[in-house]
Design goal:
It holds the Pfam family DUF7899. The protein has 316 residues and is mainly β. The protein is built from two helices and 27 strands. Among the domains are: 66 residues, no CATH class; 87 residues, Thrombin, subunit H.
């Protein structure tokens, strides 16, 4: 794995990065997760069932967790939730300090014995538990206070994003986005934010640091004559659901494109000479098959990457 700064991407120098986690076996189902809230990196080696926590500043390993009964780890500000293999009618859980791995609390949550667990999520002191065809349970782990939300109102999402500043959380289901609070109430539905990927690829979603805007790769308007085969980049207000702006094919202006394919016919409708070459493309071409999206809040620029290995920079 390679770390690279955005200035090298802009210069067309993808080889200017540096190697990360060379000692780790991160092949699927192993993974690496960057946690900028806590300044940590979590890796998992499926080969030996070991989780490791690194410092995001210098990539120094801080501690490891070796327990084959750990099914999943959820990260919140300051803490980690360890979810263990289900035992009979309950699931064992541990809350650890993110800084040094100290166990802060061990407890179990009762489950319906014969029902599949859809998800268990941790948000600060709140534990969200949903089983198949059952109500959503929101448990306060400090005082064991339990709130339930009807299964007809809250259907199992494909992904979550927690908004720590606003004490809210986003859910993604069937290309739609919704905002909830921890009383189980729906706060926001979005008027024009239909996601491109039906399974919610969160690589194509960016939440601003103030947690007031969501920027996503979305389905383009059906009335856009240039929208066939590509999407749009939509910017919406999280608290109101209003669409504030969008980049779509009919905007028509050219954008700068950089390619890392290097001396191959890459399918981007032009021959790429090297990793540092720059060519011009239409907005429609740049909006095709986007696989990653990032917003640089300091420079007010959106970076997108697509399946052809191209990086586009959208600048105001």
């Amino acid at each position: 794995m390679c770390g690279i700064q955005s200035r090298y991407i802009r210069r067309g120098q993808p080889d200017a990065g540096f190697a990360l986690f060379e000692s780790e076996s991160l092949k699927w189902p192993g993974f690496v997760e960057f946690d900028d809230v806590n300044g940590k990196v979590l890796t998992y080696s499926a080969q030996d069932s070991i989780y490791k926590v690194f410092d995001l500043k210098n990539y120094t390993m801080l501690y490891s967790i070796s327990d084959k009964n750990v099914q999943e780890i959820k990260i919140s500000p300051g803490i980690m939730l360890l979810i263990f293999t289900k035992v009979g009618g309950h699931v064992p859980l541990k809350i650890l300090s993110i800084e040094d791995g100290t166990v802060l609390k061990s407890f179990s949550h009762l489950l319906h014995r014969n029902k599949k667990v859809d998800f268990i999520e941790q948000f600060n002191e709140k534990l969200l538990v949903k089983q198949e065809n059952e109500n959503l349970q929101i448990l306060d782990v400090r005082n064991s206070e339990l709130t339930e939300v009807s299964k007809n109102e809250f259907m199992t999402p494909s992904a979550f994003i927690f908004l720590y500043e606003n004490q809210l959380f986003l859910t993604f289901r069937n290309r739609t986005v919704a905002v909830w609070n921890f009383r189980g109430e729906l706060v926001t539905s979005f008027e024009d934010h239909l996601l491109w990927h039906p399974d919610c690829n969160t690589n194509n979603i960016y939440i601003t640091s103030d947690q007031d805007l969501i920027i996503s790769y979305c389905k383009a308007d059906s009335d856009d004559p240039l929208s066939e085969g590509n999407g749009s980049i939509n910017i919406s207000n999280i608290l109101t659901g209003k669409c504030l702006a969008k980049i779509r094919a009919s905007n028509g202006f050219p954008v700068e494109k950089q390619c890392s394919c290097c001396d191959v016919e890459c399918g981007c409708r032009s021959k790429v000479q090297s990793s540092s070459s720059r060519i011009r493309s239409t907005v429609a071409e740049a909006l095709e098959d986007i696989t990653a999206l990032f917003y640089d809040e300091e420079r007010n620029e959106i970076y997108t990457g697509n399946r052809y290995g191209l990086v586009h920079v959208w600048s105001n």
